[in-house]
Amino acid sequence: MKDTIRQLIQQALTRMTEDGVLPAGLTPAIQVENTKDKSHGDFASNIALMLAKPAAMKPRDLAEKLVAALPADAAISKVEIAGPGFLNFFQNSDALARRLEAALADERLGVTKNGRTGRVVVDLSSPNLAKEMHVGHLRSTIIGDAVARVLEFLGDTVIRQNHVGDWGTQFGMLLAHMEENPAAAEGELSDLEHFYRASKKRFDESDEFADRARQLVVRLQTGEPECLRLWKHFNEVSLSHCQEVYDRLGVRLSPADVRGESSYNEDLPGIIEALRAKGLLTESDGAQCVFLEEFKNAEGNPLPVIVQKAGGGYLYATTDLAAMRYRSQQLKADRVLYFVDQRQALHFQMTFEVARRAGFVDAATELEHMGFGTMNGADGRPFKTRDGGTVKLIDLLNEAEQRAYALVKDKNPELAEDELRSIARAVGIGAVKYADLSKHRASDYSFNFDLMLSFEGNTAPYLLYAYTRVASVFRKLGLGFDQIEGSIAIEAEQEQALAAKLAQFGEVLGNVAEKGQPHLLCAYLYDLAGLFSSFYEHCPILAADSEARKQSRLRLAALTGRTLKQGLELLGLETLERM
Ligand code: ARG
């Protein structure tokens, strides 16, 4: 709709320019927004305000001329001028109803991608295998998965890349600990945090151990088979812990999506050579650096990206450069999205720039850091266990399910145990995911079980429940969403508001895909559920005063049900038919 309106305005502007009302050469970016208040129509544009100055006209006069020049369109019932000169467009209810009919008849709810589809690499989760996965990776995993699902739904080819940290000096210490006491180590591996701490303790207390750890790093780098075997074993165990979290979360990640830092090892010398050949390298205190003038430190000197240490070792940034080259050249990505902590923003700005200058990344490949804020505890302080340790994700998910179980049982004591369990799972896991997804990703957020499990407000329980309300209408009738005859007629104010919202689904998904912001979809579904509630309250469905009206309302309800379900699924939430 917005595109249609933009085109109509463009045509009016062209006509006005031809008629000499507007000076030639104006090419404004025409903005069309959804209105908040339906008494102002469905869409609004500030074009007359924008052009008033260059056209040397009063905004309202210009608005009147524009309205007169607007071509008629079946989708628009009227256009009004409001306030200082806004144009308010009212959509034609019949045309809107036809669009919803088309959505209802389509498996994909009438959603198509605006613009061409492409290949999108999504870098998500990417924990360090040396340690237990922590809450930061939970955010990356959940947000990245939701955006990946939306991109796929819109028709893009998504390539998930779990860029795990499976290389580096910490591994020396871990391998030394495995070697020292294989039997004990095997037991300890079930708790990586514990294993890491035990290794670190040995490293700090014994010089002999520390030496052995350093040698092991070198032996690992030279590919000594026994070392490699230990290292592989460690990574397998650690990855299986991650996979357990992914499966519990219902996140679409599998071992096939893992392409860890170690997989770029062999490319690293070539990266340095390529940088040198381009004349980008500068030696500084023995280290190889790329200095970027546009990034300056506190003293105003250019900041370096260090790509090779004085001792010859490579860095996180070097590996990322190799990964960028691989993603652009080998995977042929049109976009590469990095769901990584906001605190790495500078790292990405700088490495993106180096990758461009070095020609590692094609001009046509977009590199986008989708940074996210820190997850804090309910008290707003860094998320830790009572004794200051790292919270194990699996424990967090267990607690969410237990709390959801207690809540649901309290509400429905008569439910059978297995049904209770499956509702608790959907609600508990859904609550953890939704709480994260519903916040603007760049802001920090406080993890709060009470808030996320509330049945009121923008929460998973509220939305899952809203969906079951729609589903129950159809269950009572014994009909599926796709078995309702008749056609949609939009009459009451509540029908109008619900219908207009339903028609925005595709646009919202487009924004999520473009900005990597799933909270936009959460806000949309929350609004939709609220509009359905008032529709349900004011517009009797089964007791409607005519058969045609009943069918029309059922069809609106069916489209609401399908949109809620599809939306929740794209967020990675499991829906329930009853709860
Ligand atoms: N392993 C890193 C960390 O835990 C995140 C990696 C993100 N991806 C990347 N391509 N750098 O901080």
Automatic annotation (TrEMBL):
Q: Which CDD domains match?
A: ArgRS_core
Enzyme Commission code(s) on record: 6.1.1.19
User: What reaction is this protein's catalytic activity?
Assistant: tRNA(Arg) + L-arginine + ATP = L-arginyl-tRNA(Arg) + AMP + diphosphate
UniProt keywords, alphabetically: Aminoacyl-tRNA synthetase, ATP-binding, Cytoplasm, Ligase, Nucleotide-binding, Protein biosynthesis
Q: Would I find Lipid biosynthesis among this entry's keywords? A: no
A GO MF annotation of the entry reads:
arginine-tRNA ligase activity
Motif 'HIGH' region, per the record, lies over: 127-137
- What InterPro entries would the database entry show? aa-tRNA-synth_I_CS (IPR001412), Arg-tRNA-ligase (IPR001278), Arg-tRNA-synth_N (IPR005148), Arg-tRNA-synth_N_sf (IPR036695), ArgRS_core (IPR035684), DALR_anticod-bd (IPR008909), Rossmann-like_a/b/a_fold (IPR014729), tRNAsynth_Ia_anticodon-bd (IPR009080)
Domain called DALR anticodon binding: residue spans:
463-579
Q: Where is the Arginyl tRNA synthetase N-terminal domain?
A: 3-91
Among Pfam families, the record links this protein to: Arg_tRNA_synt_N, DALR_1, tRNA-synt_1d
Compartment(s):
Cytoplasm
According to its UniProt record, which protein family does this protein belong to? Belongs to the class-I aminoacyl-tRNA synthetase family.
Assembly with partners or alone:
Monomer.
What the entry lists under HAMAP family is as follows:
Arg_tRNA_synth
Task: Identify this protein by name.
Answer: Arginine--tRNA ligase
Organism per entry: Azotobacter bryophylli
Q: Which gene encodes it?
A: argS
